Task: inverse folding
C-alpha cells in the first residue's frame, strides 16, 4: 500500500507511456505495470474521459481493480472491485460504499493516440 | 418509589419489561425480574431455528445489558420459592427475601409428561427450553450412526411437528404419535388434518393417529413404545410434546386461587385473588382457558401494566381471545382462525380441496351469509391475513363468499387490495397491538414509506413477524392509492424493473447496452445495471458474454470464476456428471501442466483452481481439443443437471436418469438467467441426485417423472415443489421450457427461482396454471422462445480462443509481456494461494 499515493496533475514529474488508446477496452479498464507497481487505466467512452488508479484493492490487498466493472454514481466515475464489489471514486479514490482507505489515483493524458499516466518518480 | 417484581423471564415476562421500559411514568417505579433459567428471555416461538445453527444469541429477546440500561434489575438463575401475600414479600432458593408492592406472576408453563411407565428412561426428552434442545441434539448425534435409527415424537400438535421436522433433518427416521384421530386436533378438522398428514408423509414422516402410549420400553435407555391397542413401535429416542401445564405451584402454595385443572385465576385486568398480585401468560387461567399463544400473552402483559400504572386508557382483556394462528410447518402452510368447528346449524361451510396439491381450505360463514366466523387453511395460507382481518373486524362478505378462497374468477381481483378497506381500528400486528390507523398515520405523516420504515417507527412486525405480508400489502396499496407505484427498479440509471426493462428491450429491438442507456436510461450506468442488461440480452437473443464483454459481471467478462488471490478457476462442462476415463485423463493432464489445484464440485464436475488470467486461453484450447465445452460455472446461468446413476446400473432405478440429465443439460447449457440455475434428475424416490434441492428436479416414478421446481440449497435451503407429474420425458421438457422461460422473463435481478416463487401471487398453484394449464395462453410462445435460445447456443470459450480480438482481454498488462507474480504455498500435495 505504501507504494501508492495519489498524484495531482501539478505533481507529475514523469509521464509513463501506457499504450495506444486502441489497446484499452471501451467502457472498462486494463492494467499496466510501472516498476513493481500495477496501475489500472480506465476509459469512459460516454464522457470520453480517462482515469487511472492503483490496481491493488485496499480491502483485501489483491491486484484486481483493473478488471472491475466501471460505472457512475451521482455523476462520480467509479470502479467496483471484482472480489467483493467495493466501489471507489476514480476522481478522489474514496471508497463509496464502505470504510476502506482511499485508492491512489493518477492523472492520465492522451497524446497522438497514446495513453500516458502521470507519476512523480 | 414503588417496587414491581416480575417472577418469570420468558417471552411474556419480557414483554412486560419491554412495555414498562417505554412507559411514560416508569420513573415512579422500580422493577425487578426473577428468572429461573440461567439466560435472559429468548424467543420460544422460533425455538426450532436453534436446531439449524445452535446459536442461542439469535433467539435472545434482549441482552442482559438492556435491562441494566433501562434501570431494571434482572436476576436469572434465581428461583422464587415462596410468596407471602400478607407481608408482600417473596423468598428465593438462595434463602433471600425481597419485598414488593406489585407482583406479576409470569411463571409460564411446563411440558406435560403423561404418566406412562418408562418416561424417565434415557433418550426421553421434552421440548421447551434451549437446554432441552441441546440435550436432544447431543443425543441424536450419538444415535444417528446406528442403522435405522428412529426418533418418535409424542404429540401431533404444533410443537411436536416442529420437533419432528428437526429430527427428520438430523437424518433420523421419525414417527409422530398422536392420541387424537387427526393431526393438530385443536386447529384442524378431519379433512385439514388428513391433508397435512399427506404432505408430511410425502416428506418421509410417519404418522400414527389414535394411539395411546401405555409404556416406554427399554433397558436403561428407550428401545420402543407400547400402545393400548397392543401394537409397538421401535424408537431410539422419544420427544414428548403432549401439551403444557401452567406453572401455578408457587401461587397455589401461597393460597392464591387456582382453577380445578390448574392455572392461576385471573380477572379481566389479570388480577389474581391476592391484592396487587397479577398473572400473565401461560400460567394464567382466564375465562376457563390457558392460552399457549404469544399474542394473548402480550395482551395480558399490556393490560396488567396498564392496571398497575392506573393508565386512563388501560382497558381490559376482551371477552373472547383470538386464537387464530398461521404457521409454516415443514414447508406446509397451516392456519386457522375464529371458529374452526362451528356446531351444526350455526354456520354454513365452504370448502376447497385439491388433494394432488395438498391444499385444503374451509371457511365458516353465518347462516345469513353476511359474516365470516372462522376457517382453516392447509397447504396454501396466502389468504390468511385477509380472511383473518375480515373475521376480526366483522366486515361484510362479498356476494359470493366462495371467492374468498377460490379467488375472484373472471375479473381483475387483487387479493391484497382489500387491506385499505379495513377499519382504522383493525389490529394488524397483534403482538404489538398496532392498528391499521396507527400504520396509516405513520405513512400519512411521512414517518415511513416502506415496510422497513413502518417496522422501525411503529414496532409492528417485531414480534412473531406473521403480519409482515399484510404490512407489505398495506404499503403497496397505500402507495398505489396515492398514485405512487412501488417498484423494485434496477438502479439510478434505469427507472424500470428487470421485467419492464426486458419487455422494452424486446419491444424496441434494442441490441446493445449503450443503446439501452440512450433510449431507456440516464447517466453513465453502473456495476448493477450493466450485468442486468447483459443478462437480458442473453435471454432475448442468446448473446454470449463475448460481444459486450465490458458490461458483463467480472466473472463473465473473463469466462472464469475469480478467486481469492485474483487467479481464476476453470470448470469444464460434464453433462449429468458422466465422464469417460479419456476425458478424466485430459483434465488431469491440463491440471498437472498448469499446476492447478483440483477439487470435485457439488455439481458433479471438476474445478481447476489457480489459473492466471493469461493462462485461461491456452488452458481452454487444450480442454476444447479434448472435447470439453465451457461449464458456465462463472455465470448467472445453467450450471449442472446432477444425476444419480439410474436404472442402467442401480437395482432400484425406475428410469435411466443419467441419459435424461444429459439430455436436459445439453438442452439448456449456456442459458443465462436472473440467477444461477441448477437441476437434478433422480432415478427413483430415494432421490440420490437431491433433485428437490435444485431449481428444477425430476424424479422417476412408476408412470414417468414428477417435476419439481423452485428449490435450492445454500443459505436459505428450500425443497422444490411439485409442479406436475407423473409425466413422460417429452412433456417434462416442454413444461421445463415454459417454466424456465417464464422465470427468465419475469424474475428480478439475482432472484433465484425459490424467491421468485415466493413473490409470485398465487404461488405454485398459479405457476402450475401458467405452465401446465396454459392459463395465460403463453405456452407456445414460451416454448418457441426457449427453442430459439437452445438453437442459439455456442460455446463462448471456443468463440473467445478462436477470435484474436476477443483473446486480447486475457493479457494481464497492456505495456509489457510480463505475467503476474503470484505466491502459492503447498497444501496436501497441491498448492493454494498464500494466506492474507
Result:
Amino acid at each position: 500500500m505504501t507504494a501508492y499515493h495519489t498524484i495531482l496533475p501539478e505533481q507529475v514529474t514523469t509521464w509513463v507511456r501506457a499504450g495506444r488508446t486502441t489497446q484499452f477496452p471501451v467502457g472498462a479498464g486494463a492494467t499496466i505495470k510501472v516498476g513493481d507497481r500495477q496501475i489500472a487505466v480506465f476509459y469512459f467512452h460516454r464522457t470520453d474521459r480517462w482515469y487511472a488508479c492503483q490496481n491493488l484493492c485496499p480491502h483485501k490487498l489483491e491486484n484486481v481493480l483493473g478488471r472491475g466493472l466501471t460505472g457512475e454514481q451521482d455523476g462520480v466515475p467509479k470502479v467496483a472491485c471484482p472480489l467483493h464489489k467495493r466501489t471507489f471514486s476514480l476522481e478522489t479514490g474514496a471508497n463509496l460504499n464502505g470504510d476502506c482507505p482511499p485508492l491512489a489515483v493518477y492523472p492520465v493524458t492522451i497524446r497522438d493516440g497514446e495513453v500516458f499516466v502521470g507519476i512523480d518518480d | 418509589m414503588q417496587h414491581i417484581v416480575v417472577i418469570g423471564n420468558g417471552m411474556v415476562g419480557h414483554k412486560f419489561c419491554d412495555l414498562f421500559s417505554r412507559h411514560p411514568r416508569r420513573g415512579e417505579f422500580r422493577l425487578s425480574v426473577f428468572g429461573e433459567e440461567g439466560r435472559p428471555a429468548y424467543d420460544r416461538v422460533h425455538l426450532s431455528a436453534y436446531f439449524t445453527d445452535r446459536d442461542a444469541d439469535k433467539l435472545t429477546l434482549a441482552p442482559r445489558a438492556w435491562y441494566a440500561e433501562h434501570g431494571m434489575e434482572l436476576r436469572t438463575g434465581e428461583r422464587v420459592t415462596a410468596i407471602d401475600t400478607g407481608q408482600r414479600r417473596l423468598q428465593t432458593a438462595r434463602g433471600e427475601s425481597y419485598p414488593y408492592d406489585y407482583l406479576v406472576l409470569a411463571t409460564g408453563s411446563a411440558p406435560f409428561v403423561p404418566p406412562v411407565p418408562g418416561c424417565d428412561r434415557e433418550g426421553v426428552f421434552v421440548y421447551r427450553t434451549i437446554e432441552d434442545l441441546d440435550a436432544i441434539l447431543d443425543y441424536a448425534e450419538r444415535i444417528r450412526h446406528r442403522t435405522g435409527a428412529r426418533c418418535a415424537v409424542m404429540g401431533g400438535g404444533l410443537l411436536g411437528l416442529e420437533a419432528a421436522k428437526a429430527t427428520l433433518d438430523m437424518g433420523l427416521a421419525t414417527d409422530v404419535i398422536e392420541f387424537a384421530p387427526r393431526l393438530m386436533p385443536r386447529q384442524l378438522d378431519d379433512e385439514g388434518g388428513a391433508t397435512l398428514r399427506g404432505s408430511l408423509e410425502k416428506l418421509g414422516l410417519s404418522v400414527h393417529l389414535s394411539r395411546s402410549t401405555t409404556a416406554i420400553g427399554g433397558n436403561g435407555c428407550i428401545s420402543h413404545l407400547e400402545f393400548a391397542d397392543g401394537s409397538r413401535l421401535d424408537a431410539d429416542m422419544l420427544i414428548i410434546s403432549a401439551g403444557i401445564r401452567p406453572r401455578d405451584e408457587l401461587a397455589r402454595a401461597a393460597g392464591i386461587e387456582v382453577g380445578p385443572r390448574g392455572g392461576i385465576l385471573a380477572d379481566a385486568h389479570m388480577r389474581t385473588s391476592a391484592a396487587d398480585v397479577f398473572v400473565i401468560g401461560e400460567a394464567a387461567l382466564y375465562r376457563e382457558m390457558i392460552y399457549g399463544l404469544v399474542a394473548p400473552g402480550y395482551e395480558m402483559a399490556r393490560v396488567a401494566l396498564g392496571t398497575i400504572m392506573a393508565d386512563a386508557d388501560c382497558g381490559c382483556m376482551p371477552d373472547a381471545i383470538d386464537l387464530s394462528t398461521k404457521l409454516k410447518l415443514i414447508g406446509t402452510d397451516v392456519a386457522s382462525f375464529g371458529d374452526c368447528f362451528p356446531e351444526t346449524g350455526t354456520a354454513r361451510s365452504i370448502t376447497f380441496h385439491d388433494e394432488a396439491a395438498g391444499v385444503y381450505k374451509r371457511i365458516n360463514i353465518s347462516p345469513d351469509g353476511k359474516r365470516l366466523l372462522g376457517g382453516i387453511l392447509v397447504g396454501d395460507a396466502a389468504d390468511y391475513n385477509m380472511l383473518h382481518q375480515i373475521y376480526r373486524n366483522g366486515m361484510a362478505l362479498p356476494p359470493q363468499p366462495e371467492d374468498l378462497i377460490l379467488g375472484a374468477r373472471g375479473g381483475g381481483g387483487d387479493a391484497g387490495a382489500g387491506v385499505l378497506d379495513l377499519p382504522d381500528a383493525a389490529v394488524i400486528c397483534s403482538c404489538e397491538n398496532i392498528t391499521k390507523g396507527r400504520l396509516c398515520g405513520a405513512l400519512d405523516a411521512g414517518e415511513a414509506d416502506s415496510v422497513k420504515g413502518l417496522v422501525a417507527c411503529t414496532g409492528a412486525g417485531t414480534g412473531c413477524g406473521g403480519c409482515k405480508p399484510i404490512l407489505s400489502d398495506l404499503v403497496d396499496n397505500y402507495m398505489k392509492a396515492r398514485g405512487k407505484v412501488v417498484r423494485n427498479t434496477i438502479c439510478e440509471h434505469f427507472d424500470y424493473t428487470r421485467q419492464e426493462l426486458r419487455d422494452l428491450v424486446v419491444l424496441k429491438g434494442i441490441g446493445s447496452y449503450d443503446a439501452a442507456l440512450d433510449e431507456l436510461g440516464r447517466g453513465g450506468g453502473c456495476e448493477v445495471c450493466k450485468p442486468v442488461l447483459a443478462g437480458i440480452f442473453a435471454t432475448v437473443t442468446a448473446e454470449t458474454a463475448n460481444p459486450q464483454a465490458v458490461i458483463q459481471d467480472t466473472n463473465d467478462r473473463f469466462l472464469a470464476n475469480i478467486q481469492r488471490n485474483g487467479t481464476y478457476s476453470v470448470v469444464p462442462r460434464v453433462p449429468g456428471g458422466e465422464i469417460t476415463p479419456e476425458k478424466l485423463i485430459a483434465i488431469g493432464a491440463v491440471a498437472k501442466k498448469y499446476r492447478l489445484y483440483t477439487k470435485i464440485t457439488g455439481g458433479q464436475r471438476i474445478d481447476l483452481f489457480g489459473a492466471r488470467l493469461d493462462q485461461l486461453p491456452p488452458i481452454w484450447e487444450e480442454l476444447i481439443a479434448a472435447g470439453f465445452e465451457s461449464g458456465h460455472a462463472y455465470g448467472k446461468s445453467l450450471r449442472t443437471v446432477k444425476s444419480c446413476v439410474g436404472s442402467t446400473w442401480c437395482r432400484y432405478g425406475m428410469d435411466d436418469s443419467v441419459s435424461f440429465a444429459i439430455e436436459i443439460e445439453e438442452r439448456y447449457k449456456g442459458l443465462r438467467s436472473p440467477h444461477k440455475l441448477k437441476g437434478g434428475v433422480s432415478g427413483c424416490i430415494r432421490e440420490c441426485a437431491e433433485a428437490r434441492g435444485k431449481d428444477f428436479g425430476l424424479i422417476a416414478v412408476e408412470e414417468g417423472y414428477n417435476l419439481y421446481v423452485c428449490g435450492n440449497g445454500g443459505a436459505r435451503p428450500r425443497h422444490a415443489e411439485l409442479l406436475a407429474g407423473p409425466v413422460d420425458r417429452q412433456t417434462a421438457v416442454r413444461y421445463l421450457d415454459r417454466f424456465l422461460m417464464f422465470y427468465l422473463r419475469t424474475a428480478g435481478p439475482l432472484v433465484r427461482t425459490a424467491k421468485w416463487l415466493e413473490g409470485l401471487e398465487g404461488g405454485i398453484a398459479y405457476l402450475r396454471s401458467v405452465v401446465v394449464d396454459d392459463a395465460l395462453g403463453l405456452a407456445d410462445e414460451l416454448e418457441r422462445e426457449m427453442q430459439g435460445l437452445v438453437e442459439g447456443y455456442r460455446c463462448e470459450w471456443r468463440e473467445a480462443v478462436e477470435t484474436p480480438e476477443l483473446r486480447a482481454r486475457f493479457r494481464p498488462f497492456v505495456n509489457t509481456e510480463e505475467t503476474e507474480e503470484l505466491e502459492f504455498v503447498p497444501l496436501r500435495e497441491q498448492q493454494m494461494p498464500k494466506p492474507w
Observations:
- The longest strand of chain B covers residues 213-219.
- The CA atoms of residues 58 and 209 of chain B lie 35 Å apart.
